[in-house]
Design goal:
Largest sheet: none
Number of strands: 0
Structural class: mainly alpha
Number of helices: 6
Mean pLDDT: 84
Number of domains: 1
Distance between the termini: 8 Å
Low-confidence stretches: 12-18, 143-159
Strand content: under 5%
Helix content: over 70%
Shape: globular
Length: 159
């Protein structure tokens, strides 16, 4: 058996993890700050968000404040390592829930003359990136490692 074959599969994870972890943690705090700021802005500039609400949606003011509360709470939860996975899934759900508003704005862009059509289109790939960013925090490294360990040990035993 070659020396490279006898390597413990955990070694490569252990080596890669320290480089990724500080970046992932730092970006988690950036995400937290972004959602907290966005949530607070629902209360400091509610008229901006009220103007975005489609006419077919009920309770405009209540929905603006509720989404602001959700963004603040999820921003706090994503900053806490123990709740980041839960917050990530909730952020994904929230971003998907916001998609009808983005579609409404694009389809009815004449109602939003201050927003260039290109910016309205750009929201969709940005939304996808935000969803992927939140998804990054939904993976639990401990469970992912346990799921791969039996396969790795079986391969090593077979060799």
């Amino acid at each position: 058996m070659l020396a490279s074959e006898s390597r413990n599969p955990r070694q490569s994870e252990t080596v890669a993890a320290p480089r990724r972890r500080p970046i992932k943690s730092a970006l988690r705090y950036v995400m937290a700050a972004f959602y907290i700021w966005a949530g607070v802005s629902h209360f400091t500039r509610p008229e901006f968000f009220l103007n975005l609400m489609p006419a077919y949606m009920p309770l405009h003011t209540e929905l603006v404040y509720l989404s602001g509360i959700a963004e603040i709470v999820l921003g706090i939860l994503v900053a806490i390592p123990r709740t980041a996975m839960f917050a990530g899934w909730c952020i994904i759900a929230m971003l998907i829930a916001f998609l009808p508003i983005h579609v409404h704005m694009l389809v009815n862009n004449h109602l939003y003359p201050e927003a260039p059509t290109s910016a309205l289109w750009l929201r969709f790939p940005l939304q996808a990136l935000f969803i992927l960013w939140a998804y990054w925090y939904t993976t639990d490294r401990k469970h992912a490692h346990q799921a791969t360990t039996p396969v790795a040990s079986t391969t090593a035993t077979a060799a």
